[in-house]
Recover the amino acids of this structure.
């Protein structure tokens, strides 16, 4: 919990620098954090069997909304991700980040005693439906995160190594076809990863400037508010997806190690909760939440430091943005709930 | 089934699950370690590389162009200066539709056809990423109007610049020269030189004249401003800066008032005049008529003006004083006389009888004297005073071309004088060897005869003849002619260099020979001499010699009739002079193209210049001796 708090404080501090001293951004993020904390508190106090009951309706609503998006969604930046439901516009894919693992964990819980191979197939289908819809929006980042969270459930539920190996082989074999089905900009991003200098001012710009920011930070960093890449506008999207570059430039390797330490602490704590969770459902849920959190952190830092392609994955708890903050803290709320309720259920 | 099995199953399952969890933990640790490795690679191993990249991103080096040195005449009159003003400039690389852009700009400020043509020419010969002026010298109103609108036109800027100006225009064109925008050709030269970094922000370079030959002194040292820029290239702040060092100021040896008097004295005539201080080689006046307005060239000359200048029959762009080559005519005679005395070919007392022509032994060809009936009995003194051709035909023949060549080259004929201007030509002092080389022909005795009176193959530039005259006036001591007297620091007026007169060479001459020739040259300007009219009533002692350079050959038995001959085919008139004869302070040469006789056109011009120099007498605006109709009827 302390680690979470520290991470969120880091968020505010770095955001202040990233937005160029714009208090509105910081204030906005503070509101986001407050809302998310309320969600966390509510979730942490929610007994788990209530949660289990919501799994099916949440999943059904989520998928319906995704279909709705595909049909009537608003186009923003060339992608159809938002749905206007009168009062607010929402991003249904964000709901799925929780709904998918929830649904799958529920499913496995239901068939816990007699799991067969076909159960895995069904679970996989439950996963692939929303992932497919989100990929079509297109939103590679979210799709990857959801696919990962679902896969973690499958993995923890004991999907046999042989099947996974077979899947890996199949994936490698189908890579060329997958490549073909990617959108042009997605392909470019992957190409850019291989050689960003090919189009230094175009598609490779993000990667190059972020790498420069990280590299020029050095061991101790340039000091808070002194990042030249940040403050002279060279870094794109520096308060959202690329906020890690700002952090890295200003606080250097030392800052990165501390940040990694925080994340690792949270993840290890998550695994401990997972290991001690009382039911099959909560184990799967806790493991998936923890691993998804890890995926967020790894993919974001990987893309900023130039070892992964640029996908829209925020740095968990640090990047500006209310939705992901709420989603993440909801997840942690569940973890806490799982932790506090384990004895109650055991008895 | 039963509880046990289920419990066992559940135990096994938990065990199984924890194994998988351990696998996940190791997976997480592995990937985090991978990230850490990447951070170490970027932030420690490649740190300096990325630091440089970030620094390059951030810092842009802006050169600060130094202000060019000012050029003044010997009395401090400014001949080339700088003033600040605004230009409207376009960076071609940022503009897609140039024509359309210019049309739009023309709605806001006045852009003439001349401006457009000039801009097109600049565009063709400049680097694409440089900004080029479409309009210079904007008025305050224009600056205000454009400043409010300029944001609408990417690639268009208003720039404050220092402009070069030559306030005396035509008067100084042939020795000051001009600066102009650096073109591809100049760039090659600059890039090849060691000074290339000094020209980073410089747009102009000296192209001709003193502006060219003293480019290094005048340019100054470019300052450097390191500015922080954001990703859009906007300047955020200055990190550090080194101030530029202004170019050095030049003080010339030339007196622009004297120059102006000389120009006026020429009236409508074309020609050249060079005046030198014989005691030190300082050039006092350097005239080539007509001149041109050097200001036209600074920002690229427009096509119309260029065509006018380059197609004019008067060839105003030709520097006659430096590059014009003419037969010296009779002005060579004092030098020939000195040669004759030095080589003992003639004694002062020896006389000849002049029948009005000269023939070589065994040849009937008559080399005519300018006076048909001859001058009668002529000694050396008289030969100069009345400019007897026949005397020198004989003298040259007896002396031989070899001796003439050796003697004359000591006075600087046939080679560059070494003046501090580029593009000087060397004239022509013929020799047997030269003719063999040039025409693959042997030297005929007749060739020597013509050389004796400064015709035939002989060619001199007005500058050369002036230097030779100064050398004679200075008793054979040759000083390198120069235009720059003093180089001063542009920032603190500390004197960097002064030209110290140094005798480059001394011609060995006997005092009595010099005395005789000088006395004869004085007599030229006295009654009975060829320049008696021009020398009428001179209150100081003036020495001179007239000369006429043939433009077309007169056939045997024909008489040269000035009135019959097309104006442009008339002879060129020469006059060389120095004063005061006893202690010469000025030696000069006047060449009047197609001026006819030296005595009637060239000598009076020299007199006016000398009167101003010796007495401070400013001549009344010259009554035009020529009628414009001559030119029109050409």
């Amino acid at each position: 919990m302390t680690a979470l708090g520290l991470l969120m404080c880091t968020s505010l501090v770095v955001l202040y620098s990233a937005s160029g001293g714009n208090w509105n951004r910081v204030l906005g993020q503070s509101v986001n954090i407050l809302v998310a904390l309320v969600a966390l508190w509510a979730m942490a106090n929610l007994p788990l069997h209530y949660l289990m009951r919501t799994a099916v309706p949440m999943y059904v609503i989520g998928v319906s909304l995704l279909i709705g998006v595909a049909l009537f969604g608003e186009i923003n930046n060339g992608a159809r991700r938002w749905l206007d439901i009168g009062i607010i516009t929402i991003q249904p894919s964000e709901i799925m980040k929780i709904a998918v693992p929830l649904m799958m964990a529920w499913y496995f819980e239901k068939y816990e005693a007699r799991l067969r191979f076909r159960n895995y197939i069904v679970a996989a289908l439950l996963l692939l439906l929303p992932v497919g819809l989100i990929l079509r929006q297109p939103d590679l980042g979210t799709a990857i995160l959801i696919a990962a969270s679902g896969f973690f459930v499958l993995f923890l539920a004991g999907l046999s190594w042989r099947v996974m190996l077979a899947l890996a082989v199949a994936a490698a074999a189908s890579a060329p076809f997958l490549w073909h089905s990617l959108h042009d900009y997605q392909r470019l991003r992957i190409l850019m990863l291989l050689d960003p200098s090919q189009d230094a001012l175009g598609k490779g710009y993000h990667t190059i400037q972020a790498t420069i920011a990280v590299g020029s930070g050095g061991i101790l960093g340039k000091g808070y508010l002194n990042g030249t890449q940040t403050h002279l506008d060279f870094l794109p999207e520096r308060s959202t997806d690329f906020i890690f570059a700002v952090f890295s430039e200003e606080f250097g390797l030392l800052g990165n190690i501390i940040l990694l330490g925080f994340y690792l602490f949270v993840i290890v704590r998550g695994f401990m909760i997972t290991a001690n969770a009382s039911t099959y459902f909560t184990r799967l849920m806790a493991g998936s939440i923890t691993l998804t959190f890890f995926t967020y952190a790894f993919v974001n830092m990987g893309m900023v430091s130039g070892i992964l392609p640029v996908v829209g994955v925020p740095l968990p708890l640090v990047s500006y943005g209310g939705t992901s903050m709420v989603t993440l803290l909801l997840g942690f709320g569940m973890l806490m709930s799982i932790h506090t309720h384990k004895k109650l259920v055991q008895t | 089934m039963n509880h046990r099995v289920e419990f066992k199953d559940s135990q096994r399952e938990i065990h199984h699950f924890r194994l998988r969890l351990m696998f996940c933990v190791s997976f997480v640790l592995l990937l985090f370690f991978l990230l850490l490795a990447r951070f170490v690679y970027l932030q420690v191993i490649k740190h300096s590389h990325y630091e440089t990249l970030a620094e390059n991103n951030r810092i842009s080096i802006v050169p600060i162009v130094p202000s060019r040195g000012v050029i003044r005449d010997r009395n401090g009159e400014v001949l080339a200066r700088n003033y600040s003003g605004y230009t409207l400039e376009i960076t071609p690389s940022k503009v897609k539709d140039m024509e359309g852009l210019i049309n739009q700009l023309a709605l806001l400020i006045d852009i003439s056809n001349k401006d457009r043509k000039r801009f097109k020419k600049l565009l063709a010969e400049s680097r694409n990423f440089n900004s080029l002026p479409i309009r210079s010298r904007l008025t305050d109103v224009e600056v205000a109007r454009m400043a409010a609108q300029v944001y609408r036109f990417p690639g268009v800027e208003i720039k404050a610049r220092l402009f070069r100006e030559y306030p005396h225009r035509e008067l100084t064109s042939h020795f000051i020269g001009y600066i102009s925008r650096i073109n591809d050709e100049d760039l090659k030269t600059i890039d090849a030189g060691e000074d290339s970094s000094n020209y980073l922000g410089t747009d102009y370079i000296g192209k001709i004249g003193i502006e060219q030959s003293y480019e290094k002194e005048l340019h100054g040292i470019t300052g450097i401003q390191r500015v922080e820029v954001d990703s859009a290239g906007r300047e955020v702040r200055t990190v550090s800066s080194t101030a530029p060092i202004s170019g050095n100021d030049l003080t010339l040896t030339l007196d622009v008032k004297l120059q102006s008097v000389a120009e006026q004295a020429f009236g409508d005539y074309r020609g050249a005049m060079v005046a030198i201080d014989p005691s030190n080689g300082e050039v006092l006046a350097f005239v080539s008529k007509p001149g041109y307005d050097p200001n036209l060239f600074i920002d690229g000359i427009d096509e119309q003006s260029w065509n006018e200048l380059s197609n004019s029959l008067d060839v105003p762009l030709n520097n006659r004083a430096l590059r014009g080559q003419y037969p010296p005519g009779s002005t060579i005679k004092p030098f020939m006389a000195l040669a004759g005395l030095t080589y003992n070919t003639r004694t002062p007392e020896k006389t000849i009888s002049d029948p009005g022509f000269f023939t070589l032994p065994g040849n009937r060809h008559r080399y005519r004297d300018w006076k048909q009936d001859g001058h009668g009995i002529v000694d050396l003194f008289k030969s100069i005073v009345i400019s007897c051709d026949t005397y020198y035909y004989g003298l040259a023949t007896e002396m031989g071309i070899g001796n003439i060549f050796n003697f004359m080259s000591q006075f600087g004929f046939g080679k560059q004088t070494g003046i501090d201007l580029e593009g000087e030509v060397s004239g022509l002092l013929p020799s047997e060897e030269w003719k063999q080389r040039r025409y693959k022909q042997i030297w005929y005795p007749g060739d020597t005869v013509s050389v004796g009176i400064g015709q035939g193959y002989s060619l001199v530039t007005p500058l050369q003849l002036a230097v030779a005259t100064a050398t004679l006036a200075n008793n054979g001591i040759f000083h390198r002619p120069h235009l720059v007297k003093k180089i001063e620091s542009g920032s603190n007026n500390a004197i960097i260099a002064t030209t110290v007169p140094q005798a480059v060479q001394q011609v060995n001459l006997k005092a009595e020979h010099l005395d005789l020739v000088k006395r004869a040259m004085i007599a030229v300007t006295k009654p009975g001499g060829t320049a008696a009219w021009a020398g009428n009533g001179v209150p100081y002692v003036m020495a001179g010699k007239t000369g006429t350079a043939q433009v077309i050959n007169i056939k045997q038995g024909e008489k040269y009739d000035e009135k019959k001959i097309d104006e442009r085919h008339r002879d060129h008139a020469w006059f060389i002079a120095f004063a005061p004869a006893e202690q010469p302070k000025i030696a000069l040469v006047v060449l009047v193209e197609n001026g006819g006789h030296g005595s009637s056109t060239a000598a009076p011009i020299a007199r006016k210049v000398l009167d101003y120099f010796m007495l401070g007498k400013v001549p009344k605006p010259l009554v035009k001796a020529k009628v414009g109709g001559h030119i029109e009827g050409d």
